[in-house]
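for the record, two folds in this file. i put them one after another cuz i was lazy. first one right below, seq on top, structure tokens after. the second one comes after a little note so u can tell where it starts
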Amino acid sequence: MSELTLQELVELFQKTMAHAWMVRTFIKHCDEVDDYPELMGIVRAVFDMSRAIETKVDDPVQYFRFAQKKIGKLRTAAEQFRDDAWSASTHTNFQQAVKSVLYSTEQMEHLLKIAREKMQASNS
């Protein structure tokens, strides 16, 4: 993956964000959210990340700079969602949503690491 350009990494990050966005949509519209408003934490975190990067897809350096600022909040929200989802429902949809958002976050962190290394190498 290190042979990818920064723009190609942006495209991969966007695809990964799409998975997180689908979890956001599922949670935002599920009935359980009325009884478990804490589930909205992941909804807000995914939305916040999306808003931070969506206008920067043509500027990879800025894109990854802003994504780096938001990834910690997304990681925290994903971990909290893992804990909260089990209280809301043990249904397979919730189990898969937890796996999906944790994996998406993990992949975004990995892509950010690669992007950081590329940007550092180009500044050397």
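(here's the note) second protein begins now
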Amino acid sequence: MHMHVHSRVLTHIPEDAVPMVRDDAERRVWTFDENDYLFGAGALRMIVESVDWSRPRVRDGETWYDVQGVEVTPDGRVVGPRRTTVKASRLRPAKHH
């Protein structure tokens, strides 16, 4: 009898990371520059969980949307829940952030 053994797949996810659904591509970390979101200083890194597409806002001639998610540090640690308003041009799914 021949046994086939699968080796464990190693990932770069730290042991204490918050578990995420692997097949949910939209849960990747997005980085927004300071001028692409409202009311913050420096770049914002977050996992976008939802965008309120039903309530666009116009500010300085640009369209913005309210975004909800989880803020993370550059090394991937969870800061906590975050709500912000982001330029529509930065929320295009086709772009890689």
